[in-house]
Amino acid sequence: MRLTNQVLRSRSERPLSTVEYLDLSNLGIVSLGERLSSCTNLETLILSGNKLQDAIGVDVCGKQLWHLDLSNNWLQSVDGLSRFLALGTLVLSNNDLDWPVLANLTHLHILSLSLHGNQKLERDPYYRIHVIDCLPNVWMLDGRIVTSAERIQVDQFFKDSALKERPVRHKLRKKFFVTSTLQTIERHAVCGRKAIQMLKSYPKNGVCNIEMDWNRLHYLAKDFQDDINLMWKYIRRKSRGQFVPKKTLLVDLFEVRQNHGERCNMVLLLLMASLEFLFPTHLLKDTLETGKLLTIGNVQTMDLFLLPRTLRCKVVSLLFCAVKVDREQNEDGGLYMKLYLCLFHMMSELTKLSESTAGVDQSDQDSKLAAQLQDYKCLLATEVAQLMCIVPSFFDYLDRDVGVMNLMRVATADPDINEKLTEICGTKSEEGEDEEEVSGRKGYRVKEKKNEVLRFSSF
């Protein structure tokens, strides 16, 4: 179908000239035309799950556009994006883009770009290296920050490759033909308030170093927070009476992380596990409280676990990016190398799942990669099981919660582990015991149960 004014009005609760957030996903749209020209104040536009083959018509919706989701379409061209100077979030995952198309994005400053799921791009074994080489102004690619050190490594990769018998060539020539539109982009660009603010704060020829990496991470946290606040503003009618996140949650989290890196990394492990295994809210709260993680500085960490799944993926992505920058400063933050690699690969898979309508097709993964991911999932499950087994309420879920049962099965590679643990741990208080005896026995039994979990867990 073609986009019509009737469709626009049905998806907007306000006059089109004032709407800031517009969700046009999964409508079967094949063409935008000029219909978005009336949305002059639009900041977030979601067009995922349609049948668009190009992005023509996106640039007419006004200068304020900052978050654009074109995932899960049939895109073969991004010509409609060439008039923008900067975007906060650009999601182009799960389309049909090829390398020459990226020439239209080389000038574009993008805080967070998603390109995974474009088979013509991803089938290249040096996919990430080539994207970083082609797009010099991207801060975060597929959920992982592009650090200053990584850009140096990419430059060195091509220099080293040039000396080999069969060198890896650049996908785009450094001095390729530039259209007249791109030559005059600064005079005719679509550049709104947020774009101007970002370009002033981070000029194109600014110094790239570890300090810049941290500054960009904090800026990304603030930008993602703005996205969350805007989204909540437009879905508040549906979420009335439900949890509403603090308006500075991510910004506060990154502020306290400077002095509480290891505790934030523990929260990162639990967040990732909550996305993978779906734990009961009560158990998560008990785990945070027992581990002295419920409050870090002025951040109520339980609020992070109450966010919708897609937003939790964003939080995981940001926290992992901070870990990546830590490691480039030779700070492990309590995460040994194998656990860091576990988070690295699992975060990539979670990002793909969060931006895909069909999920990740396991048949498309080679057997070696699938086995490696299973090993990492086992490692994550083992680490989290060891953390949760100090929580008394954890043992109440061993035989009645799917998420907890799955966690233990993966951690031990034993399909019958929950029945075994339930049988071992399932003793009852004896009749006639006074309150002090029951309390002491309860503490002793928790220790017993913890030892059984640790004995069964695989390391």
TrEMBL record:
Where does the signal peptide begin and end? none
InterPro entries from the entry? Leu-rich_rpt, LRC72, LRR_dom_sf
The entry's protein name is Uncharacterized protein
